[in-house]
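Troubleshooting: if your tokenizer reports a length mismatch, compare your output against this known-good record of 157 residues.
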Amino acid sequence: MASWSDIEQQAPELAARARDRLDAFVHKTLATVRRDGSPRISGSEAFYADGDLWFGSMWGAVKARDLQRDPRFALHSGSADPGAGWTGDAKVAGRAEEVTDPDRIAAVLGAKKHPDSMHLFRADITELVTVSLPDPPTHLLIESWHEGRGVTRLERK
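Known-good structure output:
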């Protein structure tokens, strides 16, 4: 699986567009897998450090327990309403690796404010997708990077 910096090296333009969209809103939607196999979505924040994409959770939260049991996740950027200047969105999928070493957590979070007890996950990425409207907006442009396949581009009318 790939780190964020791996994707930046393999697909720098796509990674930059995705990061712009992921950074446009503080809150993102994180999808995890419940014990019964059904999906769960939760609000989450994400950030970049040491060449990786990271997200955290309050201690004992159900999304953290989901990821501890089944590390598969999907993260969707926040998105403006279509009438409010929607320019696109980004999605990241892969597996989350929980980091529990306090020194590593402190190194990753640095000066960021954090509670004494929290869960911290590093994203191993298998898929990165952006969706946008070109100018003029005659179709949707879907660009994606998949592990082992590289970048693909699809136009949908």
